[in-house]
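Whiteboard transcription, Tuesday session. T.W. wrote the C-alpha cells on the left side:
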C-alpha cells in the first residue's frame, strides 16, 4: 500500500495552491505568538462625540495607515476561523500571522472597513451582537451576508452584549447559544469562535461556550502579554484593543514586545 499512498500525497501537494507554511507543534507546549488586534469604530468623529466613542474610534485615514503598516511589514493576515483550525485541527499557520478583529457589528464595519480590507485583499473577523443587527447604527443581515461572501469571517459576540458572569445561568446560556444559531441560520456559515462581551468570562462561562459547540473564544488583553497563548488557553485568546489615537508606532511597539517576550502561561 505504501507506494500508492506516497504518490497520492505527492499529487495533492503538487495541486495545492496554498503556499508552504511553518507549523507549530503545540503538543510539545510551544508558545505561539500571533498578534490579534481588536478594533471597534472606524469613522470620522462627530463634534459632540462622547468620551467612550472617542476612546474606541479610529478615523478612516488612521485605519488606512494601520492597514498600510500591516501590508508593509509583510504580515500574513488570517482570520479567527483559521486560527481555530490551527489550534483545534492542526492546520498550519503562515510564517507571520496577524489577525484583525472588529467587535459589535457597527455599521461602519460595512461602509468603512470592508472597502479598505478589500483594497488590501485582507480578510478579518467580525464578532456580531445578533440582537443589534439591522438597527440603524449596526450592520444588516444582508450586509453581513455580503461580507461573508466576500471572504470575511463572521463569528458571535452574544445576543445583547451583557456581562455574562452577572446573568443567571440559563440567560447566559441563551446569549451564547442563540447568537451562534442566529448567525449560522442567516448566513449558512459555521460559527466556532465566541468573543465574550467586555472580555467578561469565568470558568463556568467557558464551560457554557464549550457546551454550545464553540471551539475557541477571545478575551480582551488588559496588559501587554495579550498576544501570548497556548493551545490549552484556546477559550481565552487575548487581543490587543486598539484605541483612538493608537498609531502604527504603537502597533510596531506591540510587535517588538511580542518578539522579545518569552513569558508563557
Ligand atoms: Zn463588544
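and on the right, the sequence the group agreed on:
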Amino acid at each position: 500500500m505504501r507506494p500508492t499512498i506516497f504518490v497520492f500525497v505527492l499529487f495533492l501537494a503538487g495541486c495545492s495552491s496554498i503556499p508552504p507554511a511553518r507549523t507549530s507543534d503545540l503538543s510539545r507546549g510551544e508558545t505561539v505568538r500571533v498578534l490579534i488586534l481588536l478594533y471597534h469604530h472606524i469613522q470620522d468623529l462627530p463634534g459632540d462625540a462622547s468620551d467612550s466613542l472617542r476612546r474606541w474610534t479610529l478615523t478612516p485615514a488612521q485605519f488606512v495607515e494601520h492597514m498600510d503598516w500591516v501590508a508593509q511589514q509583510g504580515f500574513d493576515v488570517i482570520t479567527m476561523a483559521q486560527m481555530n483550525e490551527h489550534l483545534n485541527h492542526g492546520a498550519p499557520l503562515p510564517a507571520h500571522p496577524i489577525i484583525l478583529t472588529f467587535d459589535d457589528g457597527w455599521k461602519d464595519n460595512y461602509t468603512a472597513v470592508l472597502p479598505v480590507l478589500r483594497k488590501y485583499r485582507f480578510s478579518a473577523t467580525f464578532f456580531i451582537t445578533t440582537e443589534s443587527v439591522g438597527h440603524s447604527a449596526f450592520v444588516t443581515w444582508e450586509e453581513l451576508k455580503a461580507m461573508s461572501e466576500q471572504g470575511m469571517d463572521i463569528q458571535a459576540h452574544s445576543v445583547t452584549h451583557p456581562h455574562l458572569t452577572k446573568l443567571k445561568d440559563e440567560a447566559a446560556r441563551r446569549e451564547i447559544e442563540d447568537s451562534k444559531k442566529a448567525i449560522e441560520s442567516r448566513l449558512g456559515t459555521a460559527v466556532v469562535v465566541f468573543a465574550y462581551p467586555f472580555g467578561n468570562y469565568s470558568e463556568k462561562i467557558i464551560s457554557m461556550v464549550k457546551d454550545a459547540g464553540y471551539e475557541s473564544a477571545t478575551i480582551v488583553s488588559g496588559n501587554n502579554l495579550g498576544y501570548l497563548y497556548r493551545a490549552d488557553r484556546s477559550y481565552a485568546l487575548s487581543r490587543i484593543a486598539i484605541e483612538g489615537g493608537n498609531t502604527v508606532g504603537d502597533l510596531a511597539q506591540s510587535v517588538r514586545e511580542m518578539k522579545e517576550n518569552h513569558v508563557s502561561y
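Someone added at the bottom: Residues 103-104, 157, 161, 197 surround zinc ion (CB under 6 Å).
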